[in-house]
Specification:
The chain is of the alpha+beta class and 380 residues long. It is 55% helix and 17% strand. The protein folds into two domains: 166 residues, no CATH class; 171 residues, no CATH class. The chain starts with a helix and ends with a helix.
Length: 380
C-alpha cells in the first residue's frame, strides 16, 4: 500500500459522502471557470487590440461624427489607415435574436482590420459586387445556421429607412474567421454606402472611426493628437484603444469584475465551510484508526500529510471535473457569450485547487496529528 493509495482508499471509505463533496467542488470550479472565461473573453477584452484606436464622439458613443472627419484623421501624422464605421443593431426573426451589423467601407476596413478579421481579397471582392451584400462572422453564422448565398432580414431597433420601414435585407457574400479563437466574430460587415444612402436620418455621419497607427507610433500619443485636432470643433472626439473601449463599454453598466469576484469568492467560502465541516466529522469517526496508525509507527507529519492528501484528492478530482465542464461550456457558448477559457484561467484554477485543498484539510489534519494515542484508543 503506497502513501497515495492509502489516501485514496481513505477518501472512498464513504463513497456517497465523497461523491457529494466532489460534486460541491466541481460546481464551485464550474462557476469559477465560466466567470473567469467571461472576464478573459469579454471584460478582459481578449482578442482586442491595444494598438487599434477608435475615435468616437466625446459627448457619448451613441452620438454621430461627421464623415468629413475621416479625411482630417487620415492626414494626421502617425496615422497609417482609417476606416469609418456605423452600427446597425437589430434582430432576425424574434426580438431576442439580436445581431449587430457594422457598416464600413470595404477597402478601408481591409486596410485597418483585414488581418484581425481574416478579410481575404476573395471575401472583399464578394462583398463589393452588390451594395446589399454582407460578410458574416464565423461565430454568428454558426449560431444562426447561416450559409453563403442566403438572404436575411435584419429588423433595426432604431435605424429607420427613408420609406419608414426598419427591415434591412442582405445577401450573405461570405463568412470570415478571426485571427484567433478569442477574436470576436459575432457580427456582420455591410457596405456603408448602402446603409448611408437608404437610412432616414444621420446621412454622411458615422458612429466611429477605426484608426491604425503607423509603425513605431505610440497609440496613446496618437490618441491625444487626434483628440486635440477636434478639441474646438462642434463635435469633440474621444479616442481610445479597442481594448479600452470594450472595457469602458461594460463598466458603464456595472463593475462586472467586482461582481464576479464576489460571486466566486462566496462560492469558494461556502465550499470551504462544507468541506472543513465534513472532514472534521470524518476524522472524528476515524480517531481510533489514527491511534492505531501512530502505534504502528506513523509519525505526526505522516498523519498530517495523509489527511491533507485525502482532501487534495477530493479537490483535484472535483476541481478537474468542474474545469473540464467549464472548458466545454466555453467551447459551446463562447462565440455567443464571449467566453475564452485561456491558459491563464486553467493555471489559476489549478493553483486554487491546490490552495483550497491544503487550507480546508489543515484543520482536520492538525486535529488528527495532535490526538494522543491513549485518547484515540479510549474512543472504542
Amino acid at each position: 500500500m503506497t502513501f497515495l493509495g492509502l489516501a485514496r482508499r481513505n477518501a472512498w471509505r464513504k463513497p456517497l459522502r465523497t461523491l457529494l463533496l466532489m460534486f460541491c467542488v466541481a460546481v464551485a470550479f464550474l462557476i469559477y471557470g465560466l466567470t473567469a472565461s467571461f472576464l478573459s473573453g469579454t471584460q478582459g477584452a481578449a482578442g482586442a487590440s491595444d494598438d487599434l484606436l477608435g475615435v468616437t464622439n466625446a459627448a457619448g458613443r451613441t452620438l454621430p461624427l461627421p464623415m468629413a472627419y475621416g479625411a482630417r484623421i487620415a492626414a494626421t501624422p502617425g496615422v497609417a489607415s482609417v476606416a469609418p464605421m456605423t452600427r446597425l443593431r437589430g434582430y432576425v426573426g424574434a426580438p431576442k435574436n439580436v445581431v449587430a451589423v457594422s457598416a464600413v467601407d470595404p477597402a478601408r476596413i481591409a486596410d485597418v482590420n483585414g488581418r484581425e478579421f481574416g478579410l481575404t481579397p476573395a471575401l472583399m471582392s464578394a462583398l463589393g459586387q452588390t451594395r446589399d451584400r454582407v460578410l458574416v462572422g464565423r461565430a454568428l453564422a454558426e449560431a444562426q445556421g447561416w450559409s453563403v448565398g442566403q438572404s436575411i432580414t435584419v429588423t433595426a431597433f432604431q435605424m429607420a429607412k427613408k420609406d419608414g420601414g426598419r427591415d434591412w435585407r442582405f445577401e450573405i457574400a461570405g463568412i470570415f474567421d478571426g485571427e484567433s479563437a478569442s477574436t470576436d466574430t459575432y457580427f456582420m460587415l455591410a457596405s456603408y454606402d448602402y446603409i448611408n444612402t437608404i437610412r432616414a436620418r444621420g446621412e454622411d455621419t458615422v458612429d466611429a472611426f477605426v484608426v491604425r497607427p503607423a509603425a513605431g507610433v505610440s497609440a496613446a500619443t496618437l490618441a491625444t493628437r487626434l483628440d486635440g485636432l477636434f478639441a474646438n470643433s462642434a463635435a469633440p472626439t474621444r479616442t481610445q484603444s479597442e481594448k479600452q473601449f470594450l472595457e469602458a463599454f461594460l463598466r458603464q453598466y456595472a463593475d462586472i469584475g467586482l461582481i464576479i469576484d464576489l460571486v466566486v469568492g462566496a462560492a469558494f467560502v461556502t465550499l470551504m465551510m462544507i468541506v472543513v465541516n465534513t472532514m472534521v466529522f470524518a476524522m472524528r469517526e476515524r480517531t481510533f484508526e489514527t491511534g492505531v496508525l501512530k502505534t504502528l509507527g506513523f509519525s505526526r507529519r505522516t498523519i498530517l500529510a495523509l489527511v491533507l492528501g485525502e482532501t487534495l484528492f477530493i479537490f483535484i478530482v472535483g476541481g478537474a471535473l468542474g474545469l473540464i465542464l467549464a472548458k466545454v461550456g466555453a467551447i459551446l457558448g463562447g462565440p455567443m457569450l464571449g467566453l475564452v477559457f485561456s491558459m491563464a484561467v486553467l493555471v489559476w484554477g489549478a493553483a486554487i485547487i491546490l490552495a483550497l485543498g491544503l487550507i480546508t484539510g489543515l484543520i482536520p489534519a492538525l486535529n488528527a496529528m495532535r490526538t494522543p494515542i491513549t485518547a484515540a484508543f479510549r474512543t472504542r
